[in-house]
Amino acid sequence: MPTKYFIELLILSALWGASFLFMRTTTGDFGPVMLVTLRTGIAALALLPFFIYKKLFPEFKRQWKPIFFLAIANTAVPFCLFSYSTYHLGAGYSSILNATAPMFGALVGFFWLKDNLSKIAIFGLFLGFMGVLLLSLSKIYDVVEVVYLPILAALVATFGYGLSACFSKKYLTGISSLTVAAGSHYFSLLTLFPISLFFWPEANPSLNSWIQVVILGLFCTGIASIMYFRLIANIGAEKAITVAYLVPVFGVIWGIAFLQETMTLNMLLGACLVLVGVALTTGVIRLSKQTNKPVETNQI
Predict the structure, then answer these.
(1) What are the pLDDT digits (tens) for 135-185?
(2) How far apart are the first and last CA of the chain?
(3) Largest CB tally within 10 Å, which of 87, 262, 286, 289?
(4) How many CB atoms lie within 10 A of CB 190?
(5) Helical axes 207-217 vs 32-53, angle rounded to 10°
């Protein structure tokens, strides 16, 4: 991989990792639904000039139905679930759970698309879910409050990412990635806006919170989406998807640096199991000649 694309990959990982930081600090002020409405709205505005310049509206018009499905399954619902999860679990912890998305993609692909799933991949699935179990136990030991629901919310979100990746492979192959990304944000905004009117915060959020939401929507969502699809075009999906393994690294770093979060031994072991499991499931770690092609997922 050329150095400039590797640097872009690191920047993208840092941006997506930072999204967990901003979700942790702003969800309490805005609530999950309002936060995601603002986030997708800002991202939609950021992507609009590129959408117009590339003259993608005719393609968007032809494919609006599958794009609408992705807007719900890959953006609106997962973003809300992760906002809720990150608020309760912390930035680093949620970013680790986010790494299970390619694993769910491989699992959905096996049952729905009849993709090949080798014995090594099945072992990877086992390791990954054991890692999630260890993470769950470690979190329960750390705090008194019940955390099963936020963990479940994060896993439902990553299942949505995996399902959406397979859906895109089946119904949107050959469609411009920018059309899919921009269209998903537009439909997410249209879907969430009327709902968000019932969730406007009682107290007006601080200026600092508003600034963080703008950064979340503009940089961590809009610009990050452009960077991700640029990387897919330049280095291929198989290499671009390695961002899934770097996001937790930055999520943990930002959580420790800015939120004084801690990394326990159980969390570290659980994170290692998740990452190794995902790598085996998607074929990034190759132990045999028969490997699985990594599933492309557009994550948080």
Answers:
(1) 877 665 555 456 788 999 999 999 999 999 899 889 988 888 889 999 999
(2) 24
(3) 87
(4) 15
(5) 40
Please tell me what DSSP assigns to residue 294: P
Per-residue pLDDT at 144: 44
Q: How many helices (H) and strands (E) does the chain have?
A: 15, 0
CA-wise closest residue to 300 among 72, 101, 132: 101
Looking at the predicted structure, is the pLDDT value of residue 101 above 70?
Answer: yes
DSSP string covering 100-151? THHHHHHHHHHHHS-----HHHHHHHHHHHHHHHHHHHHHHHH-SS--HHHH
pLDDT tens digits, residue range 241-287?
778 888 999 999 999 999 999 888 888 898 899 888 888 887 766 66
Residue labelled with tokens 């117009």: 52
Task: Tell me how crowded residue 50 is: count the other CB atoms within 10 A of its CB.
Answer: 16
- In the chain, where the domains are located: 3-282
Task: Compute and round to an integer the Cα radius of gyration of the chain.
Answer: 18
Alpha-carbon distance of 126 to 273, in angstroms, equals 9
Residue 292: predicted pLDDT: 54
Tokens of 209: 């919170």
| Separation CA 263–CA 281 (nearest Å) | 25
- 111-137 average pLDDT score: 86
| DSSP one-letter string for 149-211 | HHHHHHHHHHHHHHHHHHHHHHH-TTS-HHHHHHHHHHHHHHHHHHHHGGG--SSPPPHHHHH
**Interatomic CA distance for residues 13 and 297, integer angstroms:** 14
279 membership: H or E segment, kind and range: helix 265-282
User: What is the reported pLDDT for 140?
Assistant: 58
Place of tokens 């002020």: 29
Task: For residue 74, give Cα distances in angstroms to 39, 53, 78, 119, 164.
Answer: 14, 25, 6, 28, 6
CA–CA distance, 173 with 49 (Å, rounded to integer): 24
In this prediction the pTM is: 0.89
